[in-house]
Specification:
Layout (H helix, E strand, L loop, with lengths): L8 H9 L9 H26 L5 H26 L1 H18 L3 H32 L1 H13 L20 H49 L11 H50 L5 H42 L7 H14 L15 H21 L1
Helix pairs in contact: 1-7, 2-3, 3-7, 3-8, 4-8, 5-7, 5-9, 7-8, 7-9, 8-9, 8-10, 8-11, 9-10, 9-11
């Protein structure tokens, strides 16, 4: 089964780079390189935090912790996608089948094409936002490097990511090489983080399009002028479509449930750390530089939490439409056998489709508000401690 063009191109390229896309060349070597790079980076960052925890200002530590935990999220996301490779392959096959079947219906083709275009736009927007966020986050390198040049001091050269490196990076060519590697590293994994989020939206919009197609079928399955003549084959087709939607949603839940659990815990702390940095920086001599560096990063992390919560809310609300469409059809004008079948669809649709946070709670916009409330409470505690 061909799986080409079922996912937007930026997401596919990202998944190929990290050895997640099926049938990509050198998958094992890509995964080994990725895990080694992330693990080494995490060890050096957390080691820096432990060593300098009491020697720097609190808001600087909060900034470094937020940056480090963002990479921890990327590590968990990639490892979970590797672990759920079979589930992801099933999702791609189901999407490919849906695209093959949509060619026979103009309504289905229009719905799926519209959602695919929307998915591509969101993927491009996510990629742009993360790239710009990385550029602004690395802007302190230029400022500090200029200040060091004016003071003729190379002993405190800044890094893109604060790490406890096991070698002297102050040497001229060593420093430039280190900065270049860190820039490539932060750009690559930041874009991967955004595109994994865009993948969720791509999948959710696809299943939303399938639900719209099913609702269209349900409204047309019982024509009022042709009482008791509804085709049993069409009803079976509707039942099969409904079951495919349920299975597809369960695969999405299986793929993203543990990711959502990791994100729910870590994003609350990251948003807290970055919010604390923004609040404390107001009124300081370098407030403008700190705000420019941190504000877009703060916005991106809030957007990440919102995307997951919105995806859960969207899927839950869309699943309600199936029962409404079945109930509003003229099922009562059909034969008793067909009516009972449609009533079963109504009953089954009462169990909403959703994405859970590690099988504990459902993702929803209410959950997003709880993340913001919790992070604001933690900021208040940190301000009281400071």
């Amino acid at each position: 089964m061909k799986v080409k063009n079922v996912i937007s191109l930026p997401i596919e390229i990202c998944l190929r780079i990290f050895g997640i896309w099926p049938d990509s060349p050198c998958i094992l070597s890509r995964r080994i390189f990725c895990i080694i790079a992330l693990v080494i980076e995490q060890i050096l960052q957390y080691q820096y935090i432990i060593i300098h925890f009491y020697s720097v200002e609190l808001f600087e530590i909060m900034d470094i912790i937020g940056e480090t935990m963002a990479y921890t999220i990327v590590l968990f996301k990639i490892v979970i996608l590797w672990y759920k490779q079979r589930t992801f392959n099933k999702i791609l096959r189901m999407m490919a089948i849906d695209w093959e079947k949509c060619s026979s219906s103009e309504v289905s083709r229009f719905t799926m094409t519209w959602n695919a275009k929307l998915s591509r736009r969101f993927a491009n927007l996510s990629l742009t936002l993360y790239v710009v966020a990385v550029i602004f986050h690395c802007s302190h390198i230029v400022v500090k490097h200029t200040d060091n040049d004016k003071a003729s001091n190379t002993s405190m050269r800044p890094l893109v990511m604060n790490m406890d490196l096991p070698f002297d990076f102050n040497l001229k060519y060593v420093y430039e090489l280190t900065i270049m590697i860190q820039l490539i590293h932060i750009m690559l994994f930041s874009c991967a983080n955004g595109l994994v989020n865009a993948l969720l939206i791509n999948l959710i919009l696809h299943v939303g399009g399938q639900i719209d197609i099913l609702c269209k079928w349900l409204t047309e399955i019982f024509p009022i002028k042709e009482k008791r003549n509804s085709n049993l084959f069409v009803i079976k087709k509707v039942i099969k479509k409904h079951q495919q939607i349920i299975t597809f949603s369960e695969h999405i839940e299986d793929l993203y449930s543990n990711i959502a659990l990791t994100l729910f815990v870590s994003d609350t702390l990251i948003i807290c750390c970055l919010g604390f940095v923004l609040v404390v920086s107001v009124g300081t001599p370098h407030a403008t530089n700190i705000i420019i560096r941190t504000l877009l990063f703060y916005f991106v992390m809030n957007m990440e939490a919102f995307v997951y919560c919105f995806a859960g809310e969207y899927l839950s609300n869309k699943s309600k439409n199936i029962g409404d469409a079945a109930y509003n059809s003229f099922w009562y004008e059909s034969s008793s056998i067909n009516s009972r079948i449609i009533l079963l669809v109504v009953i089954r649709s009462q169990k909403q489709l959703n994405i859970t946070i590690g099988k504990v709670a459902n993702l929803s916009l209410e959950r997003f508000s709880s993340i913001l409330k919790a992070s604001a409470s933690y900021i208040s505690v940190l301000l009281a401690m400071g």
